[in-house]
Structure formats: C-alpha cells, structure tokens
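Protein modeling request. Please complete all fields; requests missing the sequence field cannot be processed.
Requester role: graduate student
Desired output: 3D structure, token encoding
Chains: 1
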Amino acid sequence: AALAVVSTLENVGKGKVIGTHDGHFHCDECLAVGLLKLLPEFESALVLRTREPGLLQQCDIVVDVGGIYEAASRRFDHHQRGFEETMTELSRRTKLSSAGLTYRHFGREILERALAARGGATAQHVDALFARLYTSFVEHIDGIDNGLEAFYDSGEARYEVSTSLSRRVGRLNPGWNESDVDVDARFGRAVRLCVAEFLECLDDSLARWLPARDVTARAVADGGPVIALETYCPWESHIFALEPVPGETKYVVYRVADDTFRVHAVPVREGSFTSRLPLPEPWRGLRDDALSTLVAIPGCIFVHASGFIGGARSREAALALAHKALATASSS
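Delivered output (332 residues):
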C-alpha cells in the first residue's frame, strides 16, 4: 500500500488518518503503522507524525503517543504511568509496546486475510498463527522497546530475538552529524522495512510452520507415549501445544532422507537439550549389530551417546525400539 507521511492535516483532503509521534522513530510504531496499512480500512490512510493533541484527536487511530490505551477509541499507547499490559491471552509476560497492542487487536484480521488468500482459514489455524507470529516476531520488538532484557534473572528466556530489526530501524534515524534530512521519508522507509519483514515471517509460517503443525496434529490425535509422523517435519514447536495429555509423548518416530528412521526423545520444553525420557543408558553409544543384539531388535543403527535420539533401518524397528525404551524405563 502507498505510504504518505505528513506533519499537518492542512490541505490533505478526506480519508483515514493514522497518528503517531514525530521526531526519533522506533521499531514498534513503524511496525504498528505497517500492520495497520495491511488492512483494507487503513491501506490508503495518511500517516500523521505529531505530538500535538489537537491534531491527534482528529486521527482515526493513534499508536505510540497520547498516553492512552483504549481499544474502543482506537488509542494504542504504552508510555503512560501504570501501563503493564502483556499478552496474557497467550500466557506471555513481556510488556506490550504499540506493536504488540496493534497486533493484539488487528493481528487476527491480518492473518485471516493471509490464510484466505491461500484457500481458506480455520479458527484453529488463525489462533495457532497468532501465537506463532507474536512469540517469534512481535514480542521481541515489545521487549526491546520497553527496555526489557531477553532473559529473566532465572536464565529463562523472556522473548526470542529472531531479527535485529529494531537496530536496523534505529539506523534510519538521522545521525548526530546529518542535516537537512527528510525525517518523514526515513520513517516511511522504516515502516516498509518492518512490514516487509513481518510478511516474510508470516509467509514462512504459512508455507512451512503451519503444514508441520497439521502433520504433528494428525500424529498425536490418538495420544500415547510414542507417535509416528507420516512424513518428517519440524515437530518440536507444535507437540507441546497439541499432545492430548501434557507431558505424555516421550518419543517421536519419523523417516529421514536416506529412508531410515529415527526415534527422537521429546525434550522437556522446546529448544531444551534435556529429554523427558532419554533412551536407556546401556544403549547409548552402541551401533548396528552390537545395539541390535543388546535390545533384541534387528535393524538398529545407533543410539546417540546422550540418549536423545536413535536410528533404525525400518519403521517397525524404530517403533519397537521406542516401545522397548518405555518398557525398560517402567521396569527400572
């Protein structure tokens, strides 16, 4: 959509107006404006950059300025005293910026339109994508803008830093030794940069992440401690949300490129190197005949020294290896 940035409403005609502050710009309001411009209601809207209350009152929607968060009146600022909003609906604890506030109220509509363009959207897909795009893209912009460290004191990650977008936006601001700079034009470049990267993240989620979720959902539908994927996909970011009984799934079986199979121990949480139930210690580091003889299952290939993964030459052997690991754990 075209992006016209103005500093006054004189001689601009009728039409929707998005308000935000002037001066030094940041990634959060650039993304907020860019997200709004993805919607039919605002795709032709002017962007007014000002801190003048009288002008902001004339705007149809205001982000990152004004000292008010009120969805009904379309005011989305986060700087006011006492503001502590987080994306509680996703169980997130990062304080929202104007990017997160805009995404909270308009993100689902953006995602519904993107899914519809690919043939249709289910409510489950929209909800899954809404959470995915927040945690993998929008949340870290919230965190950085609010000056929050990426990790809590406990070492737990507060948000995932998936891009240095905030820094790239910052570099578009006029330097201390620059003069005669068209700041509004630079702001326009920053908005386009933010929305382009958001759309790249969305496209990746639609093309790769969401199909992997569907594959994983079919595998876990019947529950149980061992599941088998119909085809390999990146399952780890989905299984914790999809397994019928939290913590139930212990092993995932799938085919790899050389037509052998893997038995992968599910980690305690996404990204962790600690497994819920590692493959038994006596198996670790063994290969081929030595492993097959020990477990009495023909066609075994290996078990990793840490016990997080093993291999077999057939689906049947991989499933047998997983169930043998469960039996060994329950008898010990």
